[in-house]
Amino acid sequence: MKKKLVISTGAGISAESGISTFRDAGGLWEKYPVMDVCSADGFERNPALVHQFYNDRRKQLLEAKPNAAHYGLVDLEKDYDVYVITQNVDDLHERAGQQNVLHLHGELMKVRSLTHPERVYQLKPEACATTPDTRDQYGDPVRPHIVFFQEAVPNFEPATELVAEADIFVVIGTSLNVYPAAALINYVRPGTPIYYIDPNPARVPAGVTVIAEPATRGVATLARLLSQPIEG
Ligand code: APR
User: Fold this and answer.
1) pLDDT tens digits, residue range 183-219?
2) Which of 69, 85, 127, 176 could form a disulfide linkage to 219, CB 3.0–4.6 angstroms apart?
3) What does pTM read for this prediction?
4) Nearest CA to ligand 1 atom 6
């Protein structure tokens, strides 16, 4: 029976694919007023600006490819039952071939109907190069399938259940600034080994193994540490 390896990722794992993080120097929140482009009020005030912001991010995503960190997590599926919980809205984990990916903050390549939220649409890459499609085939307005600030995080509960069942918990490339995602670390069972990969790590509880490296190197280090027999 393979051990359950649960991994929580943030923008840092996609940084080496050329996708901007949010709070690093030059990050997205330095360039855009976050509450204008990533909040429920902002969308209400100016939906066209929000559609344009997400279309610009889709264009950047279409140029990007998964990096060695994404592929390294896929490789771990050989030896572990791997579940990725990501704050990222990019699809790089999926494009790398990861089997189990749970998005906490939504998905950039999807939009949904404002009037029938159960109608979720997968955008085709070519659809993102032009002006954003703001209505679906029924003529209803659509919105990005993104969890805006001020909105609930519907996948948080299933995420806590995954973390509570983890034999090993890993956090990669997140500043642990945003809740409830940052609280996932508190849901591990006592005694569960925790690893945190980040070149500029945020403060974490004692006992967490910090790998202060960029994700592409840090995931390789993690794989080596996991393959070493644990001293009895
Ligand atoms: N490898 C690993 N980590 C990296 C790398 C790298 N090459 N480069 C930067 N990082 C780390 C930074 O040190 C930082 O800790 O990635 C983290 C990025 O932090 P944020 O920009 O705050 O991104 P994140 O934690 O994912 O933000 C959480 O905030 O704006 C909201 O919804 C948005 O999902 C996002 C949430």
Assistant:
1) 999 999 999 999 999 999 999 999 999 999 999 999 9
2) 69
3) 0.96
4) 214
